[in-house]
């Protein structure tokens, strides 16, 4: 894993990035008090945030690497944050992601960081909102975020990114069946990757049919693209679709409202963590207390937090 960082020429950008990498590892495990301190120290400088979500094995890491390479060629500083679904104890997938991305991005300036998802049930890192804010504070103009999941994860990712790319393989049919109603509709772009495998075309058409039903409601209809990691033209098409969505968003989404929703989500995730911290430190004699008393005890301590 040390290959890329170690081998690259040491530059000002290089040492800045090593610091960011260290900071992110810290933030990923920070207490709420530490997170608040870090947030105060770093200024906000919004970056374009593009989320890739979808079932494991769909090809998200591979695609993100290719898309990042294509977009980095335009000269903008790009960061990739991959939230690893495996437990912190098994770093296998983490390493796999890095190896795949590093190979593609070896001759670029793209910053890559994989973080464990920790104990959160939704596959997002508990501190993801802090992590993204820290990366933004470091001057990247674009962040590509990889998260695993088809289900509730999209709600969290939805609030944190500007463009959400739902990535599936042609074999993900069962996973689509299992998706909660509405998940497909949260995506801004739907990608059927591995279109070299059978069934991709058919699946794309099925999804288009589902999405078309929304046209009557006046919703924007997400484009459904077919990609193959080794096909540069399909990667360029995906990159253009991301740009088109960015433009659409500028014209149609109230930026102040989106910013407010993001802040609300961030505060909620800080509070959720804070409550968990306090519950973990309840005293021994809490056993005798009623639920209402425990609630009051936690609420009071939250109130005492600056
Ligand atoms: N056949 C084929 N395999 C692909 C394609 N894209 C990725 N893969 C492979 O699919 C596997 C899972 O890819 P990965 O990017 O790790 O998926 P992730 O779990 O969604 O991040 C890897 O073995 C990739 O090499 C593609 O376009 N076609
Ligand atoms: Mg991956």
UniProtKB/TrEMBL annotation:
Pfam families (alphabetical): MeaB
Cleavable signal peptide: none
GO molecular function annotation: GTP binding; hydrolase activity
AAA+ ATPase domain span: 46-285
Keywords tagged on the record: Chaperone, GTP-binding, Hydrolase, Nucleotide-binding
SUPFAM superfamilies: P-loop containing nucleoside triphosphate hydrolases
Gene3D superfamilies tied to this protein: P-loop containing nucleotide triphosphate hydrolases
Transmembrane segments: none
Cross-referenced InterPro entries: AAA+_ATPase, GTPase/Isobutyryl-CoA_mutase, P-loop_NTPase
UniProt-recorded name of the protein: Methylmalonyl-CoA mutase auxilliary protein, metallochaperone
């Amino acid at each position: 894993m040390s290959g890329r960082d170690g081998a690259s020429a040491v530059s000002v950008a290089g040492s800045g990035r090593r610091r960011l990498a260290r900071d992110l590892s810290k933030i990923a495990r920070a207490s709420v008090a530490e997170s608040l301190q870090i947030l105060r120290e770093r200024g906000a400088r919004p970056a374009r945030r593009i989320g890739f979500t979808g079932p494991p094995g769909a090809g998200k890491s591979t695609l993100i690497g290719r898309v990042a390479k294509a977009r980095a060629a335009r000269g903008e500083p790009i960061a990739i944050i991959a939230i690893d679904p495996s437990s912190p104890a098994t770093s296998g997938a983490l390493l796999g992601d890095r190896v795949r991305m590093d190979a593609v991005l070896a001759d670029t300036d793209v910053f890559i960081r994989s973080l464990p998802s920790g104990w959160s049930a939704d596959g997002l890192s508990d501190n993801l909102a802090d992590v993204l804010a820290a990366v933004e504070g470091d001057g990247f103009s674009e962040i590509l975020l990889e998260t695993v999941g088809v289900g509730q994860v999209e709600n969290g990712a939805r609030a944190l990114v500007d463009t959400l790319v739902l990535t599936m393989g042609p074999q993900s049919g069962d996973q689509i069946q299992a998706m909660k109603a509405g998940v497909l509709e949260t995506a801004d772009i739907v990608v059927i990757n591995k279109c070299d495998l059978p069934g991709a075309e058919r699946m794309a058409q099925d999804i288009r049919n589902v999405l078309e039903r929304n046209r009557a409601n006046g919703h924007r209809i997400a484009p459904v693209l077919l990609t193959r990691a080794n096909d540069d033209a399909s990667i360029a098409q995906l990159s253009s679709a991301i740009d088109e969505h960015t433009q659409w968003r500028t014209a149609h989404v109230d930026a102040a409202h989106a910013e407010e929703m993001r802040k609300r989500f961030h505060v909620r995730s800080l509070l959720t963590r804070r409550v968990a911290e306090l519950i973990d430190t309840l005293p021994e004699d809490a056993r005798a207390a009623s639920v209402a008393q425990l609630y009051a005890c936690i609420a009071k301590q939250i109130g005492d937090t600056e």
